[in-house]
């Protein structure tokens, strides 16, 4: 491309969209390169993805999105989804997914928007575990507010003030909290104020509404962004959102947050990106796979990319995008892979290191009465009181996600229940009575365990090519004793919760669809949360990190690497809100100082 832009961004997910929006508002010209397609930018394309989802046998996070061999992505291991073999793995399976398409992984996220705890930012100093951030909670608090406004978070401050999480006086979220489900209220009556002992410390349980990027009732003058409906090249059609005018407003409880909201009431990054394009100054090129970062000394000079016409063919042209400042915002895995493919390994060898997820311990049981399973959003509340405390020096903390989706995640219910009952000889009225009684009593809990950074868990570049001829990512991954001891404690807590609420514990590793892990004489059933972190972590010095506190690369003066890869740790919070807050910080620094002096 002959034109030189002020900013070239690789990746059109939430980080790239926020940086593009902020740069455009500052009067900078922006070019965005997206490896995948941009089908969801139009209302008709979004509807096409919905139909694909409806017809899919396995409702995995990638079910609505046609496999693209030119921009492949991982899917849930063990299910016959084409492309699930994208990772070349050593150790245990990583078990988490992400999306390579315009909109990024916000196309199929649940929408959870928790802030990290203040103590999550200095776990090394406090507990002797993990790494300290070069930022504090208070440093990031103003950007948390910006991220909550951009996403349109639905929450009440009173629910979120716990374990040191604090808000400035008078602060309110853009929208009121999503109403708790019947299950949430039922569990709250049984569990609230229940004392739990962890590592010699006594904590009390409280069922709390979860902050989410799903539209509810707006506060004040806030107006939620509706459904996306943009034309060719993201140019807005003259009628605006005419086709989708009545959609994209309130959450309707369709129970499909993962992987796709039928009415676009859930935030996705295309809502930010289309606002940026409408403002002017932003050009989006999709089906453009970045293949190399061109650099001379300490300066990036261009992004080489492979432009393909169709996902059905690997044929492509090699082109180069030129800019003054460059931003790699294509996810923790793809950012590190692109840097490594370009020969830009850091002197300290930390590029690709500290790969993390939230291993999710799955527990399920049968409530003594109907609790409204399979209704409403997949999760509306959680138990957050075990996310922090002095016990973190001994074993990993965890948050508890309360599922309204019955046993769908751990066992494949309700389909699996029907198949099991029929195989046992039940049919007709007896089958209907059994399902009518049990399905509505199903309860699932997911214990999201903190995983500290470990340099042995890392991403490298394999010698095996993907569909367009680029190397597939090679992952080395394992769970250490700190995490597994956390799973042991979470199991003990789950047993106490079930006993307190009168829930019949039906957790059975033989029926669980997740991974199986033996530890301390127990068999855990767990799954990946889709919460990537690490691979190009931030730090206070070039000796112990890849990027600084503004996500600028230490070894390239005009290169930024935002996204979850820059996070030294996650604590127990789902990372997207923090990723968005960090993107605002990156954008502000990029605008003020495009190139390090």
Report helical residue fraction: 10-25%
Inertia-based shape: globular
- Summed up, the domain count is 2
Rg, Cα atoms, Å: 23 Å
Class by alpha and beta content: alpha+beta
Largest sheet: 8 strands, antiparallel
CATH topology of the largest domain: FAD/NAD(P)-binding domain
CATH homology superfamily name of the largest domain: FAD/NAD(P)-binding domain
CATH C-level class of the largest domain is Alpha Beta
Q: Give the percentage of residues in beta strands.
A: 15-25%
Q: Please count the beta strands (DSSP E, at least 2 residues each).
A: 20
Can you offer a commentary on this structure?
The structure is a single chain. With 597 residues, the chain is α+β, with helices and mostly antiparallel strands. The chain has two domains: 361 residues, FAD/NAD(P)-binding domain (3-Layer(bba) Sandwich); 179 residues, Cholesterol Oxidase, domain 2, CATH 3.30.410. Helix content is 24%, strand content 19%. The protein is built from 13 helices and 20 strands. Strands 6, 11, 12, 13, 14, 17, 18 and 19 form an eight-stranded antiparallel beta sheet that branches. Strands 1, 2, 7, 8, 9, 10 and 20 form a seven-stranded mixed beta sheet that branches. A three-stranded mixed beta sheet has the order 3-16-15, covered by helices on one side. Strand 1, helix 1 and strand 2 form a beta-alpha-beta unit. Helix 1 runs parallel beside helix 7, helix 1 runs parallel beside helix 13 and helix 4 packs across helix 13. The longest helix has 21 residues. It is globular. 54% of the residues are buried. The model has no long low-confidence stretch (mean pLDDT 94).
């Amino acid at each position: 491309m002959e034109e030189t832009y002020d900013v070239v961004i690789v990746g059109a997910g939430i980080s790239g969209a926020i940086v593009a929006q902020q740069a455009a508002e500052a009067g900078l010209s922006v070019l965005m390169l997206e490896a995948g397609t941009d089908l969801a930018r139009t209302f008709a394309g979004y509807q096409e993805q919905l139909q694909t989802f409806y017809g899919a046998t396995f409702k995995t996070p990638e079910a609505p999105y046609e496999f693209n061999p030119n921009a492949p992505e991982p899917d849930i291991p063990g299910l016959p989804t084409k492309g699930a073999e994208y990772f070349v793995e050593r150790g245990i399976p990583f078990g988490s997914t992400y999306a390579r398409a315009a909109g990024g992984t916000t196309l199929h996220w649940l929408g959870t928007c928790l802030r990290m705890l203040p103590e999550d930012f200095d776990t090394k100093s406090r507990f002797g575990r993990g790494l300290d951030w070069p930022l504090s909670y208070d440093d990031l608090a103003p950007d948390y507010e910006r991220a909550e406004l951009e996403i349109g978070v639905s929450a009440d401050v009173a629910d979120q003030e716990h374990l040191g999480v604090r808000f400035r006086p008078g602060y309110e979220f853009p929208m009121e909290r999503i109403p708790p489900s019947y299950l949430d209220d039922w569990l709250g009556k049984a569990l609230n104020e229940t004392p739990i002992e962890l590592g010699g410390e006594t904590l009390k349980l409280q069922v709390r509404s979860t902050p989410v990027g799903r539209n509810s009732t707006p506060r004040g003058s806030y107006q939620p962004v509706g459904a996306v409906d943009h034309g060719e090249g993201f140019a807005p059609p003259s009628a605006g959102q005419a086709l989708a005018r009545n959609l994209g407003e309130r959450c309707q409880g369709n129970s499909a947050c993962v992987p796709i909201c039928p009415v676009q009431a859930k935030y996705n990054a295309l809502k930010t990106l289309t606002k940026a394009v409408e403002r002017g100054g932003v050009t989006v090129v999709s089906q453009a796979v970045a293949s190399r970062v061109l650099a001379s000394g300490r300066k990036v000079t261009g992004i080489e990319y492979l432009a393909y016409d169709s996902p059905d063919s690997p044929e492509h042209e090699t082109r180069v995008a030129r800019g003054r400042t460059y931003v790699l915002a294509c996810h923790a895995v793809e950012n590190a892979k692109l840097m490594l493919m370009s020969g830009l390994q850091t002197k300290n060898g930390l590029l690709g290191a500290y790969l993390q997820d939230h291993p999710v311990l799955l527990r399920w049981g049968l409530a003594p009465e109907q609790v409204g399973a399979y209704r409403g959003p997949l999760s509306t509340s959680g138990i957050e009181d075990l996310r922090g405390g002095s016990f973190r020096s001994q074993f990993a903390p965890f948050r508890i996600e309360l599922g309204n989706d019955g046993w769908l995640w751990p066992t494949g219910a309700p389909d699996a229940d029907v198949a099991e009952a029929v195989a046992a000889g039940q049919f007709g009225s007896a089958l209907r009575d059994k399902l009518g009684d049990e399905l509505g009593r199903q309860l699932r809990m997911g214990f999201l365990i903190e995983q500290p950074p470990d340099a042995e868990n890392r991403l490298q570049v394999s010698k095996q090519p993907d569909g367009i001829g680029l190397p597939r990512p090679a992952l080395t991954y394992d769970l250490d004793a700190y995490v597994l001891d956390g799973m042991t404690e979470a199991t003990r807590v789950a047993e106490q919760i079930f006993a307190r609420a009168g829930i019949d514990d039906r957790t059975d590793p033989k029926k669980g669809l997740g991974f199986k892990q033996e530890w301390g004489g127990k068999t855990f059933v767990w799954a990946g949360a889709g919460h990537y972190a690490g691979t190009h972590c931030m730090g206070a010095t070039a000796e112990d990190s890849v990027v600084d506190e503004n996500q600028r690369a230490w070894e390239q003066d005009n290169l930024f690497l935002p996204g979850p890869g820059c996070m030294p740790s996650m604590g127990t919070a789902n990372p997207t809100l923090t990723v968005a807050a960090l993107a605002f910080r990156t954008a502000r620094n990029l605008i003020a100082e495009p190139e390090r002096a």
